Amino acid sequence: MYYIITDELLQQSFEKDKNVILKAAQEVHFTELANVFVAKTIEKYTDLFNPLGLVDDTYQKIMDYPYHNLDEIKGIYDNLCVTYRYKNSDNQLEIIWDGSSQEEKYASEWKKTFEEWVDTLTNTPSFVKAILQLTVFNDDHRNLVFVRNSVKAMINEHFEIKVLTRKGIKKVVIQQKRKKKVA
Question: What is the pLDDT of residues 41-58, one digit of tens each?
Answer without folding.
Answer: 999 999 999 999 899 999
